[in-house]
């Protein structure tokens, strides 16, 4: 297994550390570095997942390129030699796992698109027959494909707090009617296009979240895009509605933590090597299936 990077450190640079990413201020731009940290149940574990940060960055870059004719994004380059100083002096920390992006005014909502009924949506449906206020047909099975994708926006919570589902009307109150209509329409469009592409690669895109920001008067796609951390990807050859699905993400970590009765409000713990290894393999498999490229550390 390759060495993991749990934290980047660029001397003299101002940094904000999230659960997984280190974000550096570069004037009117940002450097977003995806570390190998892993969180589950909103708690960051003590050890990381080899290759994870590079997988997240390179999958996002793949999708930014894929959608470049459909939507403008904040992505500029992931070539560290073209970063401003002092970032271009640290390829050992940033190469492959970082990108230079435009600094935007982030819209304070998350645009969640659900193509299948799973997770919290399945729990809501079992109780009320609805998902985030959307009435659905009776008799749906767990993980069944929905008649059409649902747009279910949420708030963007601060680190350590949970996002809250909101209505489309509430999202319009927060960001404005025109902006709310635009991001809902474009989020569904690119979700459907990505879903068709992924299906051709043997992967089901079950759901995802997009984030958007304002840049020079336009609304552009930002943050990570269609990665195993922001989306549910399922192997198509194992899909069967009526039960939970295998997935290309941190499910091994969640399952392990459940098995040891992990305190979901406590501190992170050290993950066993076999859980780390299996999780790394899933992230890498997702990258290789989607991009058609061979992953290298």
From TrEMBL:
Q: In which pathway does it act?
A: Purine metabolism; IMP biosynthesis via de novo pathway; 5-amino-1-(5-phospho-D-ribosyl)imidazole-4-carboxamide from 5-amino-1-(5-phospho-D-ribosyl)imidazole-4-carboxylate: step 1/2
Name of the top EC class for this enzyme:
ligase
Citing just one GO molecular function, the answer is: phosphoribosylaminoimidazolesuccinocarboxamide synthase activity
Can the keyword Ligase be found in this entry's annotation? yes
Question: Which keywords has UniProt assigned to this entry?
Answer: ATP-binding, Ligase, Nucleotide-binding, Purine biosynthesis
Which reaction is this enzyme known to catalyze? 5-amino-1-(5-phospho-D-ribosyl)imidazole-4-carboxylate + L-aspartate + ATP = (2S)-2-[5-amino-1-(5-phospho-beta-D-ribosyl)imidazole-4-carboxamido]succinate + ADP + phosphate + 2 H(+)
Protein known as: Phosphoribosylaminoimidazole-succinocarboxamide synthase
Query: Organism, per UniProt?
Result: Sedimentisphaera salicampi
């Amino acid at each position: 297994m390759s060495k993991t990077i749990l934290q980047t450190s660029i001397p003299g640079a101002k940094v904000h550390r999230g659960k997984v990413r280190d974000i550096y201020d570069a004037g009117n731009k940002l450097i977003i570095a995806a570390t190998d940290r892993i969180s589950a149940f909103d708690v960051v574990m003590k050890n990381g997942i080899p290759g994870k940060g590079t997988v997240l960055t390179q999958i996002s870059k793949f999708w930014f390129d894929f959608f470049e004719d459909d939507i403008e994004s904040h992505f500029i380059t992931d070539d560290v030699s073209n970063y401003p100083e002092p970032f271009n002096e640290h390829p050992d920390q940033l190469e492959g796992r970082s990108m230079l992006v435009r600094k935007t005014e982030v819209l304070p909502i998350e645009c969640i698109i659900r193509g299948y009924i799973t997770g919290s949506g399945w729990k809501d449906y079992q109780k009320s027959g609805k998902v985030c206020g959307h009435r659905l047909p009776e008799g749906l099975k767990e993980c069944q494909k929905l008649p059409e994708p649902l747009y279910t926006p949420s708030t963007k919570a601060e680190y350590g707090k949970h996002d809250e589902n909101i209505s489309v009307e509430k999202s319009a109150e927060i960001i404005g009617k025109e902006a709310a209509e635009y991001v809902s329409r474009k989020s569904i469009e690119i979700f459907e296009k990505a879903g068709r592409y992924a299906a051709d690669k043997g992967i089901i895109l079950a759901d995802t979240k997009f984030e958007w920001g304002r840049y020079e008067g336009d609304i552009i796609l930002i943050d990570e895009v269609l990665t195993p951390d922001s989306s549910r990807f399922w192997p198509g050859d194992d899909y069967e509605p009526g039960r939970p699905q295998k997935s290309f993400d941190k499910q091994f970590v969640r399952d392990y933590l459940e098995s040891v009765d992990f305190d979901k409000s406590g501190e992170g713990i050290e993950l066993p090597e076999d859980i780390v290894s299996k999780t790394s393999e899933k992230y890498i498999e997702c990258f290789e299936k989607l991009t058609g490229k061979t992953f290298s550390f």
